[in-house]
Design a protein that fits this description.
Order of helices and strands: HHHHHEEHHHHHHHH
Number of domains: 1
Strand content: under 5%
Number of helices: 13
Largest sheet: 2 strands, antiparallel
Number of strands: 2
Structural class: mainly alpha
Helix content: 55-70%
Strand order of the largest sheet: 1-2
C-alpha cells in the first residue's frame, strides 16, 4: 500500500521544530504563562473571563497542545483547530471591573485584540528562546530570526496579520524591551495568587515534592528580573549563580548524553478535544 504523506505547517528542518522537539522545552510553558498573566488586560481576557483561574493547568495544557499541534501536527488539523480557537476568541469580550496598573476600571478587552494576541505570542517565543539557549545551545542571529519567522506563521493561524507582528528578530527584541520596560505590565493580586497556585503549590504527590521545588526554582530563575520582583518571588545572587551553574551542566553534560527517546518529544497526533489557547 502507498504511504500517505502527512503535510504539516512546517518541515523537519524548520527552526521551530528543531527547538520544540526537545523535552526540556516544557520548562518554557510556566514561564510563558506567568508572563501572560502579568498583562492586566490579557489576564482579564484570557484567564479571569475564561475560568482559567479555577483550572490553570487546563489552560497550560491547552496552550502546550496548541503549540504542539501547529508545530508537529498535520496542517489540516492545525488549521481546523485554530479556526475554532479564533471563533472562541471572538466571543470573549468584557471590561476591567477594577483599575489595575495604568489601566482604569472599564477598560475594554477582547481576546482577539491584536495587541493582546501579540503579547501572548511573544511570551511563547521569548520563553522558547530563553529556555533553548540556556539549556540546549546558543543560537545565531539567523537561527533566532528563523524561529521568529516560523512563529509569524503561528501568529497568522491565530488571527494576527503580518503588519501586526514585528518583521524580524530585531523588531521582536525591540518589542520585548518595550513591553518589559514600559507601563503595560503590572502583576495584580489576582495574578499573583494564580502564580502561587501554578508555580509553588500545584497538587502533586508528596514523593514528587523535591522535583516540584526544583521546577519552582528553575521557573522563577527564568523570569525577567522585573517580573520576578513584581510577583514577589525571592531571588538573590546566590540563587542566580546556582541557576546558571545548573543550566551550564544541563547544556554541556546532561542534554547531549540523553538517549533520543528521553531527549526528544514524539510528534503530535490529531486530537478531537477543542483548544482555547
Amino acid at each position: 500500500m502507498p504511504i500517505t504523506q502527512i503535510t504539516g505547517c512546517f518541515d523537519d528542518d524548520a527552526m521551530i521544530r528543531q527547538v520544540h522537539r526537545e523535552q526540556i522545552m516544557a520548562l518554557a510553558g510556566q514561564r510563558a504563562l506567568l508572563m501572560q498573566a502579568a498583562h492586566p488586560v490579557a489576564f482579564a481576557g484570557f484567564f479571569a473571563h475564561t475560568g482559567a483561574l479555577d483550572e490553570p493547568y487546563e489552560r497550560l495544557y491547552r496552550t502546550a497542545r496548541a503549540v504542539d499541534l501547529v508545530v508537529f501536527g498535520p496542517r489540516e488539523e492545525a488549521e481546523r483547530t485554530t479556526t475554532i480557537v479564533r471563533w472562541i476568541h471572538g466571543t470573549i469580550r468584557g471590561e476591567l471591573r477594577e483599575p489595575v496598573g495604568r489601566f482604569p476600571a472599564g477598560t475594554p478587552y477582547a481576546a482577539d485584540d491584536p495587541k493582546l494576541l501579540m503579547w501572548i505570542l511573544a511570551t511563547l517565543v521569548d520563553s522558547g528562546l530563553v529556555v533553548y539557549q540556556r539549556y540546549v545551545r546558543g543560537l545565531s542571529r539567523d537561527e533566532r530570526d528563523a524561529y521568529w519567522q516560523d512563529y509569524r506563521l503561528f501568529g497568522r493561524l491565530f488571527g494576527l496579520a503580518d503588519d501586526e507582528m514585528p518583521a524580524d528578530i530585531e523588531g521582536f527584541d525591540s518589542y520585548m524591551r518595550e513591553m518589559l520596560d514600559g507601563g503595560d505590565l503590572f502583576v495584580s493580586e489576582e495574578a499573583r495568587e494564580l502564580a502561587i497556585k501554578i508555580v509553588m503549590r500545584p497538587p502533586v504527590p508528596i514523593q514528587l515534592r523535591p522535583l516540584l521545588e526544583l521546577a519552582n526554582f528553575v521557573t522563577v530563575g527564568l523570569l525577567p528580573s522585573s517580573l520576578r520582583r513584581a510577583y514577589r518571588f525571592r531571588w538573590d545572587p546566590a540563587r542566580g549563580l546556582a541557576a546558571r551553574g545548573g543550566a551550564e551542566y544541563t547544556k554541556r553534560v546532561l542534554v547531549p548524553l540523553l538517549p533520543s527517546r528521553l531527549r526528544y518529544v514524539t510528534r503530535a497526533e490529531p486530537d478531537s478535544a477543542p483548544l482555547a489557547a
